[in-house]
Please model this.
Amino acid sequence: MRKKIVAGNWKMNNDLNESIELVNEIKKILLNREDVKVIVAPPFTALDRVSQLLSGTNIGLSAQNMCYEDSGAFTGAISAKMLKSVGCEYVILGHSERRTLFGETNSDINKKFKKAISEGLIPIFCIGETLEERESGKMKKVIKKQIKKGLKEISPENFEGTIVAYEPVWAIGTGKTATPEQAQEVHAFIRKLLKEMYSESLSESTIIQYGGSVKPENAGELMGQLDIDGALVGGACLKADSFANIVKNA
Ligand code: PGA
Model:
């Protein structure tokens, strides 16, 4: 039985004080829930402080991105080692905003995946199609390419324990959620691909989150689908009570 994982991606929201306030409220409501794994992904500037505030709790800490290089002349970039040093356990990779707004390619994401693993960070590997790709019948092809290229040369041992997040681009921040049936169809497809690439047991144990306008009202039905093992939440994670209600509805 896969345990549900609900992660809140704060994106470029919350300065340091706002981050402290939000994480303290989340702690008050969600502390030490055993049935669902809760993860928060604050902006880089708040990671260190949020990490201290989460110490001794079972709420996980994730970064929203990282660089695949170790160190050096990469102005503005943050390495996996830096993230580890402030207590991150997870890192979101390949979010559609990184792909579309910052030009990240499948090959960049693959390099980041390898680096994250080698430094002991757990990737939350994001994939998803645009509306145009879905409507023109290319959805499965796009998803397959993102998976094959993003996970190129990742061994079963290194893939094990990582998280996949299916986020249809047309559902992110738009209020338009995929129906539970639409999401389930793609999740089952992803699980089948993972089985072909790795093994049945590895594919069955992999957590595949859904993301894209998840709210307390739709969280239960989405996460009630056979192959949907949690959620990656954007907008609705910025208020502690709505994030907590999504976790409760998981
Ligand atoms: P949203 O974002 O919940 O605001 O749609 C989801 C995400 O981008 O992870």
